[in-house]
Amino acid sequence: MKNLIQNFLRALKFPCWRWALLAVALSDTLGVCVVLTPEMRWLWDALTLAALFAILDFRWSFLLAMAVESVPGLELLPVWTLVVAVLAIRETRKSPPATESLEPGSQAIHSRYSQPPRNV
């Protein structure tokens, strides 16, 4: 149990996990407190799913959470929050990436998908 809590706290050092937890906590809170028609609830869940894809990239667990959220009666459970919390606990990175230098002439990589410069 102690290891799970340590993993969760370590994941919270990453801004992406903090943003994801904030987004799903807001989504689950509004989903329970505001009475929406089923169509509006599905739209709200789709927006939550899109936000999670933008913040944490594609993960199959999000599609499972979307399926659970679409079942009438189960939308009262904080499924989004539980899924993101479990994924944060399973996070294996040890420390957040170092702050990149943006000085002129630096070779900082601005995106995790960008390629290093090629020597032509």
Chain-wise SSE layout:
Layout lengths: L1 H10 L3 H19 L4 H19 L3 H10 L9 H11 L31
Helix pairs in contact: 1-5, 2-3, 2-5, 3-4, 4-5
Explained architecture:
This protein is mainly alpha-helical and 120 residues long. It has one domain (2-89). It is 57% helix and 0% strand. The protein contains five helices and no strands. The protein has helices spanning 2-11, 15-33, 38-56, 60-69, 79-89. Helix 1 crosses helix 5 and helix 2 runs antiparallel to helix 5. The radius of gyration is 18 Å and the shape is globular. It starts with a helix and ends in a 31-residue tail after the last helix. The relative contact order is 0.16. Mean pLDDT is 79; it is low at 99-103 and 108-114.
For the structure shown, list the relevant keywords.
mainly alpha; globular; 120 residues
* Number of distinct beta strands: 0
Overall average pLDDT = 79
Distance between the termini: 52 Å
Largest sheet: none
Radius of gyration: 18 Å
Structural class: mainly alpha
The proportion of strand residues reads under 5%
Which residue ranges are poorly predicted, with pLDDT under 50 across at least 5 consecutive positions? 99-103, 108-114
Counted up, domains total 1
Helix content: 55-70%
Shape: globular
- The run of helices and strands is HHHHH
Number of helical regions = 5
Oligomer: single chain
